[in-house]
Amino acid sequence: MAMISFAPDSPECASFLAWWQGLHADKGARARLRRANSLDEAMRDRRVVGLALTLGVNTDERIGLMAVLAAQVPPEDSRPGDHRPRRSPAEAFADPKPGTSREGNSALSDLRFRRLLSMETREELFPQLRRALTLVENNVDVVELARAVWWWNDRTRRDWADAYYRRANLS
Q1: Of 10, 117, 118, 121, which one's alpha carbon is 20 to 30 angstroms from that of 154?
Q2: For the chain, how many helices (H) and strands (E)?
Q3: Cut 0.85: pTM above it
Q4: Residue 84: what pLDDT?
Q5: Which residues, 6+ apart, have CB-to-CB distance to 33 below 8 Å?
C-alpha cells in the first residue's frame, strides 16, 4: 500500500486535486456523493473506487469520507463575489458565522467543536464533519480537509484544537 502524506507538493496531493476537479465536472457523481447516507454507500461509488486507485490505496472509510466531504467543497471559481481565502477546517470553524460579529460567534461552537474532536472513527466523524462544513458554507481548503480525514488521530485532533482556539482567541 502507498504511503500517503498529502504534503502540498506530493504526487498524491496533485492526484487528489485532479480527482476533485474532475468530480466537479461530473455533476451526477458529485450529487451522489453529497447525498450518500453512509460511508459504505460512498465506498461503492465508482468515483470513490477511482480515487483509491489513483492514490494507490484500498477503498476504505478514509477514502469514502474524503470523497463525500470533498464533494461538498465547491471549486474556488464557483462562488462569484466570494473572495474569502480557503482556510483549514479548524480555522473556518473558529471564524465568526457569516454576517455576525466575533463576540463568541464561532461558526462551530466550542461544545460542538469538542464533540467533533471526540469522534474516534470515521463513521462517527462522517455526520459531525458533514454538518460542521455546512456551517462554514463548505469554504475550506479541500487538501487540508483530505489530510485531516486521512490521518484522523490524536495528533490531528491536537493540531485542530490548536488552530481553532488560536483563531477564536485572535479574532
Answers
A1: 10
A2: 10, 0
A3: yes
A4: 54
A5: 23, 42, 45, 47, 48, 67, 68, 70, 71
pLDDT digits (tens, 9 = 90+) for 133-150: 999 999 999 999 999 999
Residue 5: Cβ-neighbour burial (10 angstroms; 0-12, 13-18, 19+):
middle
Closest CA to 16 of 92, 60, 88, 71: 71
**Cβ neighbours, 10 Å, residue 144:** 20
Residue with cell 490531528: 156
For 37-66, the DSSP string reads: SSHHHHHTSHHHHHHHHHHTS---HHHHHH
What 151-158 contacts at long range (C-beta under 8 Å, 24+ apart), as own/partner pairs, is 151/6, 152/62, 152/119, 152/122, 152/125, 157/117
